[in-house]
Design goal:
107 residues; alpha+beta; 4-stranded mixed β-sheet; two-stranded antiparallel ribbon; 4 helices; globular
Length: 107
């Protein structure tokens, strides 16, 4: 599967092998459990992030991974999104720092 990451006008396709999606379920559950405790989303504390907010949070982790040239983490985070939203096509992120403005695009 492929998840496209749009950072402002720059597009990067992250190819996610199917086995990562199926084999990382425990890790994804750990991410969910962590987010179940609430999350600071830019200036706002969100008590119980919904699915879109979780994808925005993970999108921010993808952006950080790409900035640090950490392709493995970027792929793992993309796999999380694809595991939760199988029809996801892309996530649009930006450097402005407001993750609540990230947009998840589905097919």
């Amino acid at each position: 599967m492929i998840l496209n990451i749009f950072v402002d006008e720059h597009k990067q396709a992250i190819k996610v092998p199917d086995e990562i999606i199926t084999e990382a379920t425990d890790y994804f559950a750990m991410l969910d459990k962590d987010m179940d405790n609430g999350y600071q989303m830019s200036r706002k504390w969100v008590e119980k992030p919904d699915l879109l907010q979780r994808c925005q949070i993970i999108g921010d982790k993808i952006l950080s991974a790409l900035e640090n040239d950490n392709k493995e983490t970027a792929t793992l985070m993309a796999a999380y999104i694809l595991s939760r939203v199988p029809n996801a096509y892309a996530i649009h992120v930006n450097f402005e720092g407001d993750i609540t403005m990230y947009d998840l695009e589905t097919r």
